[in-house]
Design a protein that fits this description.
Shape: globular
Number of strands: 12
Structural class: alpha/beta
Largest sheet: 6 strands, parallel
Order of helices and strands: HEHEHEHEHHEHEEHEHEHEHEHEHHH
CATH class of the largest domain: Alpha Beta
Helix content: 40-55%
Distance between the termini: 31 Å
Number of domains: 2
Radius of gyration: 22 Å
Strand order of the largest sheet: 2-1-3-4-5-6
Low-confidence stretches: 1-16, 22-26
CATH topology of the largest domain: Rossmann fold
CATH superfamily of the largest domain: Glycogen Phosphorylase B
Strand content: 5-15%
Number of helices: 15
């Protein structure tokens, strides 16, 4: 387990911003322990949560908040994770920090079992309780038990959406004062509307893991209908994963040759170009909110997401949501936006405005503020255990 070094450089700040930043730094925690097992951090993993972790770490570096990052690298196999779990727990026992933050529920059980306090856990979704049939049952079982355990035992919880907070209160009896809703962010230096990149009319795209859970099958089936009615429509799929073969076979069966392509994994430095060239972006996920849709919106490309779980908290425009199980509704929405450019422009402008409120730096600041609040509460309560 490694404590990561902090950055020593920061962007130039004006006088007031510098004062506020120095004041914030003066109130910082001495050291935060971040439990990430069995995840890691990275922007090129193709997984949204690793991106969130990477951006949080970058935000803490920019704020000069000291932290130690405990991990074993990204472990994708449940059996391998179980085999490494005991050693990770044992190693945490000898570590001492002002506050502990777990990047998601599985990572949260370790500092809690190691008797660390206070512990704040990030709960970014409740998918295992509401969606089934798209992942193995063992994985879902482990996640359900971990979510329930950390929700009941953590000193504080951070969630990105109000609906998630309400569900946690109802399901596990957690008090409002232990939950803080802090929206996710976006890197506006990486994802922004660049008018110099010419859009390719009627080009529709998907970027995400190749699996039914993310709605790629719905996107393919819906586009097949669009292709019959719009001769210029073209589908670009940037994807990979265990179900990529199935998705390619589905596309081969229902979409005419020459009307689609699978381009594989798009690296971080190529994403803005990918998003910006599209006329529409599709992410009809059955798992709810997805970062790729937000990134596309920031690049000036309207996105259509799945109307399910926490997506409805963020995608509030009537044209931005469809039933993820309805290729017919998705195809009708695509045809509407491709043909009615006034409605298209309405959605595009809403999208650009919507993403302006999101910031990874603001997210990191609010995380630290909540961590300090929980630590102060814990200390003032005489370090009493949760009841």
């Amino acid at each position: 387990m490694n404590g990561l070094s902090r950055l020593t450089t920061e962007p130039r700040l004006n006088e007031r911003s510098l004062y506020n930043n120095l004041l914030f730094v003066s109130l910082m925690l001495k050291q935060v322990g971040i439990s990430a097992f069995p995840l890691s951090k990275g922007r090129d993993t193709g997984r949204g949560l690793e991106r969130v972790i990477a951006e949080l770490a970058a935000g803490l570096d920019a704020l000069r908040q000291p932290y130690a990052f405990y991990e074993r690298g990204l472990i994708r196999n449940e059996v391998v994770a179980i085999l490494h779990a005991a050693k990770f727990l044992w190693d945490l026992r000898g570590r001492h920090q002002d506050v502990w933050f777990a990047v998601y529920p599985v990572a949260g059980i370790f500092p809690i079992l190691a008797a660390k306090r206070p512990v704040i856990t990030g709960v970014y979704d409740l998918i295992p309780f509401f969606v089934s049939g798209f992942d193995n049952s063992l994985k879902y079982f482990i996640k359900r038990r971990c979510i329930e355990f950390v929700c009941r035992r953590s000193d504080g919880l951070i969630v990105p959406f109000a609906s998630t907070a309400e569900q946690i209160q109802e399901m596990f009896g957690v008090g409002k004062d232990r939950i803080r809703v802090i929206p996710l962010g976006i890197d506006h230096k990486r994802f922004w509307f660049d008018a110099s990149i010419q859009k390719r009319r009627s080009r529709i795209g998907f970027l995400g893991e190749a699996k039914r859970a993310k709605g790629l099958d719905t996107a393919i089936l819906a586009f097949a209908e669009v292709a019959k009615q719009n001769q210029d429509a073209f589908l670009t799929i940037a994807s990979g994963g265990n179900e990529i073969g199935q998705m390619k076979e589905l596309a081969r069966k229902v979409i005419p040759p020459g009307r689609y392509e699978f381009v594989g994994f798009v690296p971080e430095d190529g994403m803005r170009q990918f998003y910006s060239e599209l006329d529409l972006f599709l992410f009809p996920s059955r798992y709810g909110f997805g970062m790729s849709a937000v990134e596309a919106m920031a690049c000036g490309t309207p996105a259509i997401a799945g109307r399910t779980l926490d997506s409805t908290d963020f995608f509030t425009h009537e044209l931005s949501l469809v039933d993820p199980n309805s290729p017919a509704e998705l195809s009708q929405r695509m045809l509407l936006l491709l043909e009615d450019r006034q409605r298209y422009e309405e959605l595009r402008q809403w999208s650009l405005t919507k993403v302006q409120s999101l910031s990874w730096t603001a997210m990191a600041e609010k995380y630290v503020e909540f961590w300090m609040e929980i630590q102060e509460r814990y200390m003032s309560n005489g370090r009493r255990s949760l009841t």
